């Protein structure tokens, strides 16, 4: 059973607009969440993270929002740029239980100019 | 500025052959990981290591073995390759158990 779900396999956005990538999780023990970006033929690169004690974390054009009651997090990219076109993975872990990172299946973002 | 280096980048094997994938990191990280990524799937953890001389099983360990004889290296072995092990393999390392992981560029392995 998938513990981390990214229900949208793909997302298309115009340059300059906002991209919103969503992630749902089922394990209430998860308390640390990360987003990774992956270009073809490269490994994933860390983008941004959030701890469960926060509901928002911002880094430049990237903001992650966490809604613990809904077990939902989202990544906002504003403004979107063509170079943001990549696969985005959501990942979660439970510090208390000592679990390793669990990854979602990824969402492919395409930003057109 | 190497970070995490994986060798080889590509390999084709026949069923039943064995091989070893090498991962090397130059960031003095304690934790190292091996993942596999299959089409339409996220990354799934095969094995990991929390320090030199230690290894532990991840989500999908069957058919694989690992060794961490040196802190900077983490080896992934396939003793008898099967077509189901055709995948892209990623190695990663991190300084702490829950810190961001740094990934290599992957090894694309095809087993015929």
Mind explaining what this structure looks like?
The complex is a heterodimer of chains A (113) and B (112). Chain A is mainly β. Chain A is built from no helices and eleven strands. In chain A, 35% of the residues are buried. In chain B, strands 2, 4, 5, 6, 9, 10 and 11 form a seven-stranded mixed β-sheet that branches. Chain B has a four-stranded antiparallel β-sheet with strand order 1-3-8-7, with no helix packed on it. Chain B has no helices and eleven strands. The mean pLDDT of chain B is 94. The termini of chain B are far apart. The A-B interface holds A 4, 6, 9, 32, 34, 36, 41-46, 49, 89, 93, 95, 98, 100-101, 103-106 and B 4, 33, 40-45, 48, 58-59, 90, 92, 97-98, 100-106.
Q: Return residue spans of chain B where pLDDT drops below 50 for at least 5 consecutive residues.
A: none
Characterize the largest beta sheet of chain B: strand count, sense, and whether it forms a barrel. Answer: 7 strands, mixed
Q: Globular, elongated, flat, extended or rod-shaped: what is the shape of chain A?
A: globular
Beta strand % of chain B = over 45%
Oligomerization state: heterodimer
Name the descriptors.
heterodimer; A: 113 residues; mainly beta; 6-stranded mixed sheet; 5-stranded antiparallel sheet; 53% strand; globular; B: 112 residues; 7-stranded mixed sheet; 4-stranded antiparallel sheet; 11 strands
Layout of helices and strands:
The complex is a heterodimer of chains A (113) and B (112).
Chain A: E1 4-5, E2 10-14, E3 19-25, E4 32-38, E5 45-51, E6 56-59, E7 62-67, E8 72-77, E9 86-93, E10 102-103, E11 107-112
Parallel strand pairs in A: 2-11
Antiparallel strand pairs in A: 1-3, 3-8, 4-5, 4-9, 6-7, 7-8, 9-10, 9-11
Chain B: E1 4-7, E2 10-13, E3 19-25, E4 31-37, E5 43-49, E6 56-57, E7 65-67, E8 73-78, E9 87-94, E10 102-103, E11 107-111
């Amino acid at each position: 059973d998938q513990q981390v779900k990214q229900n949208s396999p793909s997302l298309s956005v115009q340059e300059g607009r906002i991209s919103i990538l969503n992630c749902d999780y089922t394990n209430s023990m998860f308390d640390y969440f990360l987003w990774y970006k992956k270009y073809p033929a490269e490994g994933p690169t860390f983008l941004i993270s959030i701890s469960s004690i926060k509901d928002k974390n911002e880094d430049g054009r990237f903001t992650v929002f966490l809604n613990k009651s809904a077990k939902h997090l989202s990544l906002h990219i504003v403004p979107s740029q063509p170079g943001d076109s990549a696969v985005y993975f959501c990942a979660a872990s439970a510090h208390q239980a000592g679990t390793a990172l669990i990854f979602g299946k990824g969402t492919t973002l395409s930003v057109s100019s | 500025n190497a970070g995490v280096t994986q060798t080889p980048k590509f390999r084709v094997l026949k069923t039943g052959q064995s091989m070893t994938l090498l991962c090397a990191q130059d960031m003095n990280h304690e934790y190292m990981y091996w993942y596999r990524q299959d089409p339409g799937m996220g990354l799934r953890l095969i094995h990991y290591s929390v320090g030199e001389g230690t290894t532990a099983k991840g989500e999908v360990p069957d058919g694989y073995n690992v060794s961490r004889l040196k802190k900077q290296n983490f080896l992934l072995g396939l003793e008898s390759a099967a077509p189901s092990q055709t995948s892209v393999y990623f190695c990663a390392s991190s300084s702490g158990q829950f810190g961001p992981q740094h990934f290599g560029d992957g090894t694309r392995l095809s087993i015929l």
